[in-house]
Amino acid sequence: MALLHQVADICRALNLNVQVKRLRWLDRAIWSKINSDDCRFAADGVLFPDRMKGRLEPKEWRPLMASSLTFHKRLVWNMPGSTIVTIFIMFGLMLLGAGIMSYAFGGGAGLPLFLYVVLVIGPFLSNRTTQLRKNQRLQADLEAAKIVGTEEFLSVLGKIEEMELKDIRETENRGFSRHFSSKPSVAERIANLSSPT
User: Can you name the residues that pair with 41 across neighbouring β-strands?
Assistant: First the structure.
């Protein structure tokens, strides 16, 4: 199968020892949706979005596979220094909040402290985490483009964008919630690859 050959080829190009024996087409894995501009490597197989079956040539999947592999195998577990600093800042804010609540409310600080963590610390930490993952995904695109070529990558993303698929439109139009999403839109991916380095 031509697509399986492309999978093996991109794994070799990235110097990854990934043994892929089967391909599956499904729009949703147990844990989450598989986006139209993505694919997932799992165990001995690759999961492709079913809504994209036949829409791209086997070779056109190369940039998406290279980016997915780079993100999941090389970047996702790397924690930059800024994240460590953020964790310490959040811990300090929690202690400061706990001290203020205890002083202001005496022994009944439990509920105010809980609300402080849920309404202030939670959203801030969630946003920081998702933005980090989004930046890592965009970095994976840049690294993948070095292997497959920037123009080829942009061509594939442009083709997907022109399909106007529902999940792509929803990602583009998510408004304020985009700050809490780790998934860059196709437009963001194109802008990232098009920007001068």
Answer: 46
